[in-house]
Amino acid sequence: MVIDPVCKMKVKKKKVKFKSDYKGSTYYFCAQGCKNSFDEDPEKYLGGSESEMHEMH
């Protein structure tokens, strides 16, 4: 499980349909709206426990 950085919802990484790459990391989202919000301003959502929200390449 990973955490959507926008709404903080837990999502199953293997089943997620929405993801974005940012600064060498992949972020996973529960819905298109969360992905769109992140894509508009990623830094706004990066501040908590990043290791839970993304997977390092």
In short:
By secondary structure, the chain is of the alpha+beta class.
Structure write-up:
There is one protein chain. The chain has 57 residues and is an alpha+beta fold. The protein has one domain. It is 30% helix and 30% strand. It has helices at residues 32-40, 42-45, 50-53, and strands at 2-3, 10-11, 18-22, 25-29, 54-56. It has a three-stranded antiparallel sheet with strand order 3-4-5. It is globular, with a radius of gyration of 10 Å. 26% of the residues are buried. The model has no long low-confidence stretch (mean pLDDT 87).
- What is the mean predicted local confidence, pLDDT? 87
Q: What is the assembly state of the chains in this entry?
A: single chain
Radius of gyration: 10 Å
**Element order, helices and strands?**
EEEEHHHE
Write the layout of secondary structure elements.
Elements lengths: L1 E2 L6 E2 L6 E5 L2 E5 L2 H9 L1 H4 L4 H4 E3 L1
Antiparallel strand pairs: 1-2, 3-4, 4-5
Which descriptors apply to this entry?
two-stranded antiparallel ribbon, single chain, alpha+beta, 30% helix, 57 residues
